[in-house]
Amino acid sequence: MSTSTHDLTHDLEPLPLHVVLVPGFWLGAWAWDDVVPHLGAAGLVPHAVTLPGLGDVAEDRSGVTRDDHVRAVLDVVAPLEGDVVLVGHSGGGAVVHEALDRDPGRVRRVVYVDSGPLVDGAALFPDVPAEAVEIPLPSWEDLAAQGSSLEGVDEAGLARFRDRAVPHPAAVARGAVRLGDQARLDVPVTVICTSLPSEVLRQMAHPGPPLHTELGSLDATYVDLPTGHWPMFSRPADLAEEIVRAAQA
């Protein structure tokens, strides 16, 4: 019995649209728990990532490097069939940008959540002492003083954050970003601005201080979602909606 081309085409199902979620400092995949169901309900396939050294307080973080974090993201992406969108929150933004640089043809779009891509050679915290192995979660007061607003996170959310946070590998924080493929600049990005208005960020989107970012060289769409630095805790449904909109653009 012969099968028509029409029948074969009809039987083919569209490939899924994958969203790889990379959290910032001190966080594991759990940080996206309130976002993931909304992404799935919208038809996306979410993959929340726990980067090396951030799975448990008892882990040995002495040998964890930036390259380990980048490779962990690439390992998640490698077996996926279909389009891939990378989402990086805070310090995770620099990680997904390096992952993009390693394989730009594999990525449909990058979404930066209160974050952005660093330029080649820049580091998030270059002044972290060489002898430091890990960076514990600071006090709420210190975080606020550093510009990491906790706006919108209730007491239960803060308690969960504090209870589940894991010290961040120091070598990752002080390690320099390494980029080499200019094709990364051709991949569209969405920047979800939560603690800093897009109007302000646009003025800072250049390679110099204080941000040392490549945003000004990218095909970037800016979205304002006013809240603090951790929208996955303060406005998870709204954050998911913006990620879906970006992924489907």
TrEMBL record:
Entry's Gene Ontology molecular function annotations: catalytic activity
Name of the protein in question: AB hydrolase-1 domain-containing protein
Domain AB hydrolase-1 span(s) in chain numbering: 19-241
Matches recorded under InterPro entries: AB_hydrolase_1, AB_hydrolase_fold, Sec-Metab_Biosynth_Hydrolase
Coiled coil segments of this chain: none
Domain of life, source organism: Bacteria
Source species taxonomy: Bacteria, Bacillati, Actinomycetota, Actinomycetes, Micrococcales
